[in-house]
Amino acid sequence: MPKISNKGLEMPESPIRKLVPFAEEATRKGRKIYQLNIGQPDIKTPQGALDAVKNHDIEVLSYSHSAGFESYREKLAGYYQKSSLPVNKEDIIITTGGSEALLFTMGSITDPGDEVIIPEPFYANYNGFATASGVSIKPIQASIDDGFALPPIAEFEKLITEKTKAILICNPGNPTGYLYTKEEVQQLADLALKHDLFIVSDEVYREFAYDGVKHHSIMSIPELAENAIMVDSVSKRYSMCGARVGCLVSKNKEVMATAMKFAQARLSPPTFAQIASEAALETPQEYFDEVIEQYTYRRDLLVDGLEKIEGVKVAKPKGAFYCIAELPVEDADDFARWLLESFEDNNETIMVAPAAGFYSTPNTGKNQVRIAYVLKKENLERAIKILDKALKQYKQQN
Ligand SMILES: Cc1ncc(COP(=O)(O)O)c(C=O)c1O
């Protein structure tokens, strides 16, 4: 049989999805599963976005411009300008999700063998995008004890070699929920300027900042114009994960011209989804105010609940809708599988994402899980109770 590529063999499985077959089996047995493992919000998509697709008058569903609709890019630039970010339509390429923006970014700024420094734990699919691009990730460990704040800049500096092309951050963080302070973003910017590196900032959760704390975008630092690349998406902002629309944003003309060649190769982002995304920009502020209130409430409910369970340690998230919890187990991978295969309480169980897949340092985060607080109050309360019971039972059996 012809051989699969080494790259293909090295491509990591998604730690978020690898438990799916066990969940399917549990569902077949009639078990109800509370899904704390994925970032699929249950918040309603803005009606205006859905109506725009229903009420279109398209007769030919054609390709769009490779950079995306001009009208959409113009309005999207306006959205960033409202947050005082100096973004114009020519600084934006619309992509098929933030995922494609990350792939275009890797493709545009790295060669096989190059290195990208990323604070860990990080969004697990960065591993996949790096493998697909032949890039080596140099992780730098953030700690649950300080809520996953930016590790000291001296630690980053130690990892910089002539192969280092970029530092990649996720702000607010998935899976940590950490929101970088203005000082931390500035420190990274200074480092990038000193060593002539790119800073790639994944800001797909940029609207999800709690407790009145402001989000600081990488695009807000004028001196960093040539070094900054922002990745964004409509998936979480408008609860439109299935639209598959995101964007790559940079003031660096060479980066944009290069990314544009990748964009041309795949022709265009999806047309209907751009119609929905453009309409979503009209979403009133009250929608976000309600969503933020809802997530703040859920976060507090989850963190308070977790803190009451013996042996559980949790870093209170300041943004996004995830947290990392340290559990009194040795191997969270085994525990997560056991929850689906062998545990039930009133025929119900929970699904969590083992956190080891969010680290690239081997044997790290083995007793941690990522929990997404994307469930309604009653379901979240029930899920926390199930976790408490399951931990007790698991401990007795092991
Ligand atoms: C941090 C982060 N970046 C990027 C993405 C990709 O999102 P999408 O391709 O749906 O825009 C996700 C999705 O969960 C994410 O959590």
TrEMBL record:
Pfam families: Aminotran_1_2. Its EC number is 2.6.1.-. One of its GO terms (biological process) is amino acid metabolic process. InterPro entries: Aminotransferase_I/II_large, AspAT/PAT-like, NHTrfase_class1_PyrdxlP-BS, PyrdxlP-dep_Trfase, PyrdxlP-dep_Trfase_major, PyrdxlP-dep_Trfase_small. Coiled coil: none annotated. The keyword Ribonucleoprotein does not apply. It comes from the Bacteria. Its cofactor is pyridoxal 5'-phosphate. Gene3D superfamilies: Aspartate Aminotransferase, domain 1 (3.90.1150.10), Type I PLP-dependent aspartate aminotransferase-like (Major domain) (3.40.640.10). Keywords: Aminotransferase, Pyridoxal phosphate, Transferase. GO terms for molecular function: pyridoxal phosphate binding; transaminase activity. Residues 33-386 form the Aminotransferase class I/classII large domain. NCBIfam families: PRK07568.1. Belongs to the class-I pyridoxal-phosphate-dependent aminotransferase family. This is Aminotransferase. It comes from Christiangramia lutea.
